[in-house]
Amino acid sequence: MSDLYSISKWQEPAICRILDANLDRAREGLRIIEEWCRFGLSSIQMAGECKEMRQELATWHSDDIRAARDTPGDPGTELTHPQEEQRISIKQVLQANFCRTQEALRVLEEYGKLYNSSMGAAFKQMRYRVYTLESHLLAYQRHRLLEQSFLYLVTSNSDQLFLTVEAALQGGLTLVQYREKNADDTIRLANAHKIRQICHHYGALFIMNDRVDLALAVDADGVHLGQQDVPIAFARQLLGPHRIIGRSTTNPDEMQRAIAEGADYIGVGPVYETPTKAGKAAAGLDYVKYAAKNASIPWFAIGGIDPNNLNDVLDAGAERVAVVRAIVQAEQPTLITQYFLSQLTKEQTLRRLESRISQSHV
Description:
It is a single chain. The chain folds into two domains: 12-143, Ferritin (Up-down Bundle), CATH 1.20.1260; 149-360, TIM Barrel (Alpha-Beta Barrel), CATH 3.20.20.70. The chain is an alpha/beta fold. It has helices at 12-40, 44-60, 63-67, 90-115, 119-148, 161-170, 185-201, 212-217, 232-239, 252-260, 284-294, 310-315, 325-328, 333-360; strands at 151-154, 175-178, 205-209, 222-225, 244-249, 265-268, 299-302, 321-323. Helix 6 runs parallel beside helix 7 (185-201). The protein contains 14 helices and eight strands. It is elongated, with a radius of gyration of 25 Å. Helices cover 57% and strands 9% of the residues. The protein has an eight-stranded parallel barrel, surrounded by six helices. This is Thiamine-phosphate synthase. GO terms for molecular function: magnesium ion binding; thiamine-phosphate diphosphorylase activity. Condenses 4-methyl-5-(beta-hydroxyethyl)thiazole monophosphate (THZ-P) and 2-methyl-4-amino-5-hydroxymethyl pyrimidine pyrophosphate (HMP-PP) to form thiamine monophosphate (TMP). Mg(2+) binds at residues 210, 229.
């Protein structure tokens, strides 16, 4: 222990116990994150990053640090908090363990300086790696869920707004956009916060319409921008790389521009005339057909789509659809959501089967 500087002999065991506990804590937190990256997300890259950091931590866990361990004499083993007793979502599990790991690394960074002159710098850099991993994992989860979402609910003014959204989520919906053009910002903010809570309870994405500021204020998963809204680059600068940005498009030029500017998904429409876009001519099924052949990012056919014309839209090449009135005004939002999802899932299955048959003949 020649590197203990001016630490007195009676302080040495305490320093080692602190290092021992936090090395264990950081490794345990990383292992929990690693398991989800590996089995939940099938991300070899992120799982490998966790494993690499765990192994690096192990190299610092020397015999003299381990020898200082005194679990029976540790008063902290009895400390707990009600929030530690339950987790209601994967997001909570991950957030708790990212916090646990980051806090442990900060402790190792500070107390490590007293034990080894290289320890502080090493754990400082690892802490930054964990921050980066957290951002990447959150972005990865959001984008993966976006790709797996084939039905998109865009809300409109309704006395039963929260009940309708929750009913649709109970039917399997995984993507919701809060759209309200006429309310005051205080009402929008309150409504957005409530809908985000409902969405995240069901593991669904919550997107804010138009307003980047409100998206940030309520910690939305992303924002949807119209053609007259702020540029995608400006929204990305404010939102960062881990949130989703969508853009409405009405023709091939707007579609190609949105993709080039970095949109994560686009709306394609309006397919049919709709009061949601009063006065705007329908883009029609031809634009849906164009998107099916040329869009390189997820896209949602939108505009007047309902159970009566859904098959026409799917026949034109759509794989994903966004709806407003078909769910918001439905007497049984859960059932209509399930109907949409069943049709979209069936279409996906048929297309995968056709693709396999086609590839087998090549």
